[in-house]
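Predict structure. Chain length: 321.
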Amino acid sequence: MAKTALVTGTTGQDGSFLSELLLSKGYEVCGLVRRLSSPNITNIQHVMKDLRLLDGDMTDQTSMITALKESRPDEIYNLAAQSFVATSFRQPVLTADVNGLGAVRLLEAAKEVVPDARIYQASTSELFGLVRETPQNENTPFHPRSPYGVSKLFAYWACVNYREAYEMHVSNGILYNHESSRRGLEFLTRKVTDGVARIAKGKATHIELGNLDPKRDWGYAPEYVDAMWRMLQQPKPDDYVIGTGESHTVREFVELAFREAGIEKWDKYVRTDPKHFRPAEVQTLCADPSKARNVLGWRAKTRLPELVKIMVKADLERVGG
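Prediction complete.
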């Protein structure tokens, strides 16, 4: 009998790729979506006919209980979040409610309705923040540097607590930055590749960015949702760091993007504005994914130059289209 999965945040980058993966494996996929006047279904338009969409909101306990009763999932993937770090500084209470308390609402609903369901929580490398060591692994101390990171830390420990207190199969995926052409335009990487495409096509004259010095571990989103699925196939729940093991500066990403568009002197087109700097910066994030490799059999395949090539090509086609 086919398994059923409930995916929160199914219209986002990760939710859409995960839904595709689960459908390819024969799952019945239910997506929890917020009721909006203008639904953003661009990322799932091509698989809409195969999905069962359920109304729900991470700030509304009743809607989650109802969604679980309607879907009775074998697996739950909690990808819904206020996921933009910059916004978390402007809307810290909302971020805490959606990301932190939202995870607890889902855990509590699952405990009551489907206690045997296996649950994946989308955690983040932002937990490490002011890093104590590089690279970071599952034992590296946490020190988040944004309301987003703090909210995700609350959710992380809530998942550990429900796992230990109620013997629920709950796993945290501590995912490092993972990108694709489905990434929202407000995120740094898409802001860069979209801006580069517009400059190359004569539709823009410059890109306005913040700090170019921070280093990040960037991977390709479709590979990372496979790691999520693998976690819930394990006999025992656990927490895993997921990343490439390579770290690159924002400056390197920008330079690669311009070069991919055939523009060598990239610095002529980039303006730095302090208003885009974080109040508390995370300088260096680099994963040690050894545990995921050894236990899950997972490893990142796409490195930064290839990732940038994929994203710039897609934006050049879209902007020139």
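Summary: The mean pLDDT is 95.
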